[in-house]
Amino acid sequence: MSNTNSLKPQYGWTVSVFLPIIPFFAKKFTKHGISANFVSWLSLIVFLIGIPFYYFGSVNILYRIVAAFFFSLGTFFDVLDGAVARLSNTSSKNGALVDSIIDII
Hints:
This protein is mostly helical and 105 residues long.
């Protein structure tokens, strides 16, 4: 996971912040039997939770801060799912397809 050249460019600063802790969490998730697909779906759920906060952000700046938190956390889970798949040796075309579709959403 130390090669940042293989990461998606749209992540921006969040990848550089999260990259050092991704292997630690990937080991923890794998140890507890949490699948990469579950982490992918979790990232989508977290992003969806952040959308209303962003939408109502013009009402209160706190909403925008909360939205930024959820979007950053969703990005963390999106990066983590690949690390979990590689660590648990469960990478598959189906999993990559699920991840890609969730990324598009």
